[in-house]
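Section 5: illustrative case.
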């Protein structure tokens, strides 16, 4: 039977796609259904039919799956942030482990036998005393207007720039709501306009909120489409009274772009950074710094990376895409020398300050692209690394960076990834150029979402 748009279908969800959609089949023809989970028996409406698969919209859950749970957020179906909140957390972890394994096998070309030997159980947040909600130490909220002209904030609906009004995301800290209520109230009382993406007019674009979980320190950065914030003293007066408030700043972004932050920040009250602690290392974090959003899992992630590095105190380590020096400083405690490379200059400045404040003098940081700095360190300065650690953005490592890593021939490569698809691609290259995959472990940094971090270890074959 051929199916067409607006047909109603009934089926059982047998699998889940990489983006968290439920997958069911009718006469062998697969349909992807958002918000359905494995084991659900559902009624759905066909939305689109392609040659070998279709998309359908969940209409009714006839029989809920044993793996289904009640989402804590009422907006989870509309918002694009939490794709699998309706799936029990232990099942989320199995889904993520399968996602990593499938990518390593399909894209990386690693055999099921090898992966069965080297893949370690996913590290989740389901330990006693830990909650798989309220884990995010950072949130960025767009500011806009509803159809009645009222100022709103929240999160974008999936694959759109339509704001779903919600000041209290259950993944974020409770202080977010207090901050946003204060900012919206200030805007209304002082006739401060919200940015309109279509016209490019209006002042306030986004609000960034960060919290140091170990210190309780709060940071707020208001992103504006201008050079100054009207009546900013009134905003400071309100925000500075919130418990933990440490830093209030503005960032100017006049570009019509999807990039949230401007290129710089101006502090209008308090310090230019907040502090957080991972393990026994204190980190200064600025509005533009990259810093892992889940501090509970970050300590597990970095401890695992350090274990994989196998440091004895004699090694030279290169840490590429090092951010504010988080992994670098963990490694420096056990290594002879660490060289960190990061493209964001403010983050490099933070990394240097973090090394100084932790009395770590064997870590050096360079500002620039990894694919440019690493060849220069190797070719012009003769740098030889025993261990290279990489933690690249979602797009993975640059081809030149990978080539130089192979040329430098470190004994071990520790690759930390936030996208197992690009990880698999890069591992395939490295394993075709003298390395073997020894260990791999998923770490769930982002409960309720489809995203998962992975730590992998490669050995040079002739070492």
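Designed sequence:
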């Amino acid at each position: 039977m051929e199916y067409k748009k607006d047909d109603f279908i009934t089926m059982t969800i047998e699998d889940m796609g990489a983006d968290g959609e439920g997958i069911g089949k009718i006469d062998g023809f697969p349909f992807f259904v958002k918000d359905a989970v494995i084991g659900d028996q559902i009624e759905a409406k066909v939305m689109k039919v392609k040659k070998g698969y279709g998309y359908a919209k969940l209409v009714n859950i006839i029989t809920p799956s044993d793996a289904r749970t009640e989402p804590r957020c009422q907006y989870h179906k509309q918002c694009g942030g939490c794709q699998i909140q309706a799936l029990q957390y232990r099942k989320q972890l199995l889904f993520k482990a399968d996602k990593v394994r499938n990518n390593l096998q399909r894209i990386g070309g690693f055999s099921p036998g090898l992966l069965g030997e080297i893949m370690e159980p996913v590290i989740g947040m389901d330990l006693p005393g830990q909650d798989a909600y309220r884990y995010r130490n950072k949130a960025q909220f767009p500011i806009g207007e509803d159809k009645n002209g009222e100022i709103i904030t929240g999160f974008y609906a999936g694959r759109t720039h339509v704001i779903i009004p919600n000041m209290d995301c259950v993944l974020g800290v409770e202080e977010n709501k207090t901050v946003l209520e204060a900012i919206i109230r200030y805007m209304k009382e002082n006739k401060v306009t919200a940015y309109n993406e279509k016209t490019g007019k209006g002042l306030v674009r986004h609000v960034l909120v960060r919290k140091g979980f170990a210190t309780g320190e709060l940071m707020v950065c208001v992103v504006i489409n201008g050079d100054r914030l009207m009546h900013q003293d009134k905003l400071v007066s309100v925000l500075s009274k919130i418990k933990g408030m440490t830093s209030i700043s503005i960032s100017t972004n006049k570009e019509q772009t999807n990039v949230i932050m401007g290129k710089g920040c101006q502090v209008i009250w308090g310090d230019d950074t907040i502090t957080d602690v991972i393990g026994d290392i204190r980190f200064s974090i600025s509005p533009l710094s990259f810093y892992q959003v889940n501090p509970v899992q970050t300590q597990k992630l970095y401890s695992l990376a350090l274990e994989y590095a196998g440091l004895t105190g004699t090694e030279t380590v290169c840490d590429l895409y090092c951010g504010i020096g988080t992994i670098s400083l963990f490694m420096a405690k056990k290594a002879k020398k660490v060289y960190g490379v990061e493209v964001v200059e403010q983050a490099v400045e933070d990394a240097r300050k973090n090394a100084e404040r932790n009395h770590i003098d064997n870590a050096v940081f360079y500002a620039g692209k990894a694919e440019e700095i690493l060849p220069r360190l190797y070719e012009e300065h003769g740098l030889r690394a025993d261990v290279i650690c990489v933690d690249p953005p979602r797009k993975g490592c640059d081809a030149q960076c990978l080539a130089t890593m192979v040329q430098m021939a470190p004994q071990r490569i520790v690759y930390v990834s936030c996208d197992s698809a690009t990880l698999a691609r890069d591992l395939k290259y490295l394993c075709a150029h003298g390395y073997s995959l020894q260990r791999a472990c998923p770490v769930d940094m982002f409960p309720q979402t489809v995203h998962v971090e992975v730590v992998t270890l490669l050995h040079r074959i002739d070492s």
